[in-house]
Amino acid sequence: MQLYGRRSSINVQKVLWCLCEVGLAEGADFQRIDAGLQFGVVDTPAYRELNPNGLVPTLVDGEQVVWESNAILRYLAATRGADHLLPLDAAGRSEVERWMDWQLGTLWATLRVAFLGLTRTVEPQRDYGAIRASFAESARLLRIADERLRTRDYLVLNRFTLADLVVTLAAHRWYGLNDRFHALLATHPEMSSLASWLDVQRVRPGFAVAQG
C-alpha cells in the first residue's frame, strides 16, 4: 500500500491517523511518498494517472486507487473491518458521516482561508479582513461542536469514530492559529467542552502519528 501526500496536509493527516486506528504502520504496512507543494510529484503524468485532480492524498492499495480524504477514510474502515470507526448500519453511519462532511465542506472550507492567509501568505499580501472573518466564522462553527460536547464524551455514538478524528484535526488547527497569532485575531468566547474533548483526542496514538 502506498499513500501519496506531504505530512503537513490536514487531509493527509486524516488518512495517517485512520491507518493507525486500523492497525497499519508506516514503513511496515504502507509506504508514504511525499507529494505536493515543495515536493512536487502531483503534476507528473504518472501521478495524474492516479489522481487527475493533482491533489493529495491518494491511496494505492494493490489495484485499487482512492483519492479524496473522506473517501479514503471510508475505504479503510470498510476494507479493514473498522465498523467501530464507521458503522455498517445506515443510521449510525449517517451520524458519523454528517460530521465528516461538515468538517470538510463547512468547517475546513471556512477555516482554510485564515490558515492559508496566516501560514502560507507573506505579510504584505495578507488580507486581514478575510482572515479575521474566516477565523471568527470558524469559531462560531466550532461552538456547534462545543455545545454538542457539553453532555457527551464523543461527537456521536458514545465512542471514538471518524467524526472525532476529522473534527479534531480542524479544531487543533484553529487553536494553533489562535495561540500563534492571538495578537492579530479577535478574542473569542472560551469553548471549554471542546477544549477538554480535544485534549483527550490528542493523546490517542493516531494523533501523534498524524502530526509526525
Q: Can you put this structure into words, describing what you see?
A:
The chain has 212 residues and is α+β, with helices and mostly antiparallel strands. It has two domains: 2-79, Glutaredoxin (3-Layer(aba) Sandwich); 90-204, Glutathione S-transferase Yfyf (Class Pi), Chain A, domain 2 (Up-down Bundle). It is built from eight helices and four strands; from the N terminus they run E-H-E-H-E-E-H-H-H-H-H-H. It has a four-stranded mixed sheet with strand order 2-1-3-4, with helices on one face. Helix 1 links the parallel strand 1 (2-4) and strand 2. Helix 1 (10-21) runs antiparallel to helix 8.
Strand content: 5-15%
Percentage of residues in helical conformation: 55-70%
Gyration radius (Cα, Å) is: 17 Å
User: According to CATH, what is the class of the largest domain?
Assistant: Mainly Alpha
Shape: globular
Short description:
The chain is an alpha+beta fold.
Using brief descriptors, characterize the structure shown.
alpha+beta, Glutaredoxin, Glutathione S-transferase Yfyf (Class Pi), Chain A, domain 2, 2 domains, 55% helix, globular
